[in-house]
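Re: folding output
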Amino acid sequence: MGRVQRTLKETGHDVVWAGEWPKDPGDEEILNIAISENRILVTLDKDFGELSVIRGMKHYGIIRLVNISATQQATTCNHVLTRHGGELENGALVTVEPGRLRIRLAET
């Protein structure tokens, strides 16, 4: 995700990459950190969606990339953030696959 981080920063996004942390705190703590810092979480891991949907953990928005090539991840993230940033900031879960985008809005 290093290339994605650089590209998103270059386009004006404030990005933190968990891969640079000294140790992996685990999925739940990553989600807790993201919400405490009002950060949209970008992930390739379906576990974050499960924490959100099945366990009801709150979040500030999640973008899950499924089978998106490494060369397309930054472009895809920028597209989703531009078009669906408001929904994400309200707690939406956006799943992106080649040729398909699904949005699960936060329950109120």
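--- second protein (sequence, then structure) ---
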Amino acid sequence: MPIYEYGCVACGKHHEIIQKINEPLLTICPACGGKLEKKFSLSGFQLKGGGWYKDGYTSSEKTSEKTTPSTPLKKPEKSGK
């Protein structure tokens, strides 16, 4: 269940309330009975593990391979006149 954040217009208190998605939003402050306004906040959702980001979350074996310098490829010389 998501956590919704509300702010009371009357008393200025901040409330974090766990609600189901299909429940109606709260409109009355539980502390003073004033008007509540829903606040928008960033979520704590993170994607971790292999496959989400090619270079973000790798195992220690793959990390060590990336940090070793590779030898540059030599371009073939063109045969001239």
